[in-house]
What we know:
Layout: E1 17-21, H1 25-30, E2 40-44, E3 65-75, H2 84-89, E4 91-102
Amino acid sequence: MIPTDARIAPDSRPGKIIGAGLNYAAHAAQLRRPAPRRPQIFLKAPSVVIGNGQAIVLPAESVRVEHEAELAVVIGQTMRRVTARGTLEGIAGYCCANDVTARDAQHFDAITHA
């Protein structure tokens, strides 16, 4: 029997999290931005991964935090300059992800706003 205070932790911590933003026209329109020619690539810190049932800690300085359900692709090996077929061969699995972003802090420039 699983104790009631047990928490399911992630299986592992990823080495890096790479996202593709504005990768469909409706998302760009929602943000009132033109759709880019290619998706915008961004990184998230591995420390943002939490386990099932754990609380998402919202940043106190943000008033616009949004979430999106995402399909996460787990890459199981180091890859570089691979073909489309090679890319598929490197996929270790898939999982659901909840991408949470503080939109009002997303493009904040600490140098010019200090």
